[in-house]
Amino acid sequence: MTTYDLVRAKAEAAHRAAAQLAVTSTVIKNKALLAMAAALEAEVHAILAANALDMEAGRANNMKESMLDRLALTAERIDGMAEGLRQVSRLEDPVGNVLDGRSLPNGLTVTKVRVPLGVIGIIYEARPNVTADAIGLCLKSGNAVVLKGGSEALHSNTAIAEVLSKAAEAAGIPVGSVQFIDSSDRQAVTDLIKMNGLVDVVIPRGGAGLIQAVVQNATVPVIETGIGVCHTYVDAGADYAIARAIAINAKVQRPAVCNAMETLLVHEDAAAEFLPQMLAEFFETGVTIIGCEKTQAFDKRIQAATEADWGTEYGDLRLSVKIVSGLEAALAHIAQYGTKHSECIVTRDYEHARLFQQRVDAAAVYVNASTRFTDGFEFGFGAEIGISTQKLHARGPMALPELTSTKYLISGDGQIRG
What we know:
Layout: H1 3-21, H2 26-42, H3 44-60, H4 65-71, H5 75-90, E1 98-103, E2 109-116, E3 119-124, H6 129-140, E4 144-148, H7 154-170, E5 178-180, H8 187-192, E6 201-205, H9 208-217, E7 230-234, H10 240-252, E8 261-267, H11 268-284, E9 288-291, H12 293-296, E10 303-304, E11 318-324, H13 327-337, E12 342-346, H14 350-359, E13 364-367, E14 387-388, E15 396-397, E16 404-411
Parallel strand pairs: 3-4, 3-6, 4-5, 7-8, 7-12, 8-11, 9-10, 9-11, 12-13
Antiparallel strand pairs: 1-2, 2-16, 14-15
Helix pairs in contact: 2-5, 2-7, 3-7, 5-6, 6-7, 10-11
């Protein structure tokens, strides 16, 4: 079987299942989600054994530590995946929700309701937890799903998908609703994003190269999840202890994720008081600082920033630092180099906070809180299918409502148009 035949067979199976899944009851979907969570916990040793094979291969191939962190599974992370599925089971089912309704002068009634998108293709890299999140959210929202994970996580993703699909089908989910493309051939991605008529939408999750390749080559509609060049701006007169805690959390807690801070902007009037201790804390936690000339003056260990650095998503323990003249300069820098993902201001000035939230063009804009909260789980959505940085259809963490479309239901008693 060629790669194209494999992908098409999976897409066709998902397409057949989608029609049944769209009308599957909330009771069955919730029962399946709980069964899936229990199955993950029951099969934790098998999943960890599969992940160990991927981790061994990753180290042999000199995979970066930040990528190994994304790839790694632990019993705790698997417990987190299971809890995510349970949270999704407790959320309201969006399918069938009435969004609008009216009666027309001619007697027709028009009702707008939520319906599933149909078949969703998910293309992602070394994040095995995406497998569980995607399957759970797609099934709850009535969508069949075709998953294509990165070859570096093939064993992990295959194990998770098999466990979850078996548990879901045993609980009453239509057979074929969950499809995993167990091929390391990159051609599979090219084939999946051109399965018009079988796949309704594709969502890429990963680095800039993967996302742009999908956006530029897909003929199936794409919901773009963007990279995160996220900024924290420390205003003059801010609570500097709070600012340091936020900055450390945003950069260090998990540097490989898209909502981690990549650039710290500091008001020039705050630099002398704020930066010395801030830089010391970064160095103590293993962060490499890449800074502007004014920042370099604070410590000889700071590397000189290039123009390219300001627009780079490092995904590791590197951080760009720039001293700016004030709020307007910070806003201009974010507008030029940001990726419309997550941005933060730390300030005591209410007017500055208001202006920052009004003028920054991003999916999530924070005042006095870490950008690390841009996450479906943290927002109370149970999980997310990705964080959209585009403006059409969905923006920000995409959970259940964002995985639906709408349908108009019209009822009459014999009306015809004159």
